[in-house]
Automatic annotation (TrEMBL):
Lineage: Bacteria, Pseudomonadati, Acidobacteriota, Terriglobia, Terriglobales
Pfam families in UniProt: HypA
Tagged with keyword Transcription regulation: no
GO biological process assignments: protein maturation
GO MF, one example: zinc ion binding
InterPro entries in the record: HypA/HybF (IPR000688)
Segments forming a coiled coil: none
UniProt protein name: Hydrogenase expression/formation protein HypA
Entry keyword set: Metal-binding, Nickel, Zinc
Length: 120
């Protein structure tokens, strides 16, 4: 499952940042997921729970912002029609391989840490 390695990578980065700042617990991590990134949001959220299980961060949340994808044919410049449900691999007009212009990445946007309670 691809989502598992994505979640593992995100968690490694977030935890390293928390360690750097000497924070015990992550509160949430926000990521942007492109529609063409090959990542299913629900599976990514499950994967996040799996990789943080039984760690200090097991209650942390993964927030996902979906970003739309954009494709264009490098040959004739055609865009997928508005009635296209899935992103086509090939141009309808010239059968050329479609080029992905955006929405094919997972981006880490924000890491929030649990606020430590100051002891009086
Ligand atoms: Zn084309």
């Amino acid at each position: 499952m691809y989502e598992l390695s994505v979640a593992q990578e995100l968690y490694t980065v977030a935890r390293a940042r928390a360690d750097e700042m000497e924070v015990r617990e992550l509160e949430s991590v926000r990521v942007a997921v492109g529609e063409l990134a090959g990542v299913t949001p629900d599976l990514l959220r499950s994967a996040w729970r799996f990789v943080t299980a039984e760690s200090a961060d097991e209650n942390s949340r993964l927030d996902i912002d979906l970003r739309s994808g954009r494709q264009i044919c490098p040959q004739c410049g055609a865009l997928p029609g508005p009635d296209v449900i899935a992103y086509p691999a090939h141009c309808e007009r010239c059968k050329c391989h479609m080029r992905v212009e955006s929405g094919d990445r997972v981006e880490l946007l924000e890491i929030r840490f649990q606020q430590e309670l100051a002891l009086a």
